[in-house]
Amino acid sequence: MAKAKTPNSTPEKVTNANSIKFLEKYLNNASPTGFEWPGQEIWLDYIKPYIDEYFVDTYGTAVGVINPKAEYKVVIEAHADEISWFVHYITDDGMIYVKRNGGSDHQIAPSKRVLIHTDNGKIPAVFGWPAIHVRKSGKEEKIPKTTNIFLDCGARSKKEVEEMGIHVGCVITYPDEFMILNKKHYVGRALDNRMGGFMIAEVVRLLSENKKKLPFGLYIVNAVQEEIGLRGAEMIVERIRPDVAIVTDVCHDTTTPMMDKYEQGHFKSGDGPVVSYAPAVQNNLLRLIIEQAEKNNIPFQRMAASRYTGTDTDAFAFGAGGVASALISLPLRYMHTTVEMVQKDDVENVIRLIYNSLLSIKDNQDFRYIK
To answer: Distance between CA atoms of 84 and 36, rounded to whole angstroms?
Structure first.
């Protein structure tokens, strides 16, 4: 016999066909660190029917608001930016050398296609690499490094490159697009962390469609510049000054080859959201989230994040005089590649967990240990 749902629990199927159309459009759009606004427009257009108002800060963090006049403020947050490259140096013969924008992986670059974003539009190029025939067999002396990977845009002089509109500082992204693998996995680039933006957008849609009235102000935050040091979150926490923040990001699925569980821990796609224990995580808020997972039969995993979480949770927790913060992570395979992969069930369960956690927070709830 199936267990009865609690009154506030989400339906078995959370996302719908329109949700997935939004997800595909959102993921296929390029939103590199510092240049997030095209993706923010897509995200805001999706949530506008479900919020009371919105604002965008100076650097592009987008915020939807429900109950903007409420004094008690709760944030649900993800980050919008994706890793990318910058044009760093153009040689006389038209080769383009690059510099990281975020944690871009130099080892996956050779033979990848890219788009160079210019004022003249997106210029296609490729990461070239010497053929296997000219590399010494059994002894690879030249391996991909940030100092030797290069782009070929088809130009054969620096002048020709510049005439195409390419200059030092142009941002470079991969064009790899969204796909569904084996009917149960989402695959693409920038799932870290536009899946988070998608999940908090779905939470807001569900609150609206299920006609849930919150006793506090809800701020739905899609922050910029996380990939270079949590910068968007550091700015927006001071502007909102919330009482509570529930952050969602990704963590490693450590069940794939060459992952060290002794170092990284054991987390598996399909086993549910991952909740973190860390100094930045407020334990009473974490307890509330775990209680909602257990009450609503949502599977979850636990992570010991130690000194810091490495996510926007740290910026919220230690900003604005201290904000009760918690982190709910989505297990992800192949982080910072163009084939990042998550399981559909985990996505739905993160949405359920955030949704039910919000419904359990009381107006002016004080999460302090000693009052």
So the answer is: 11
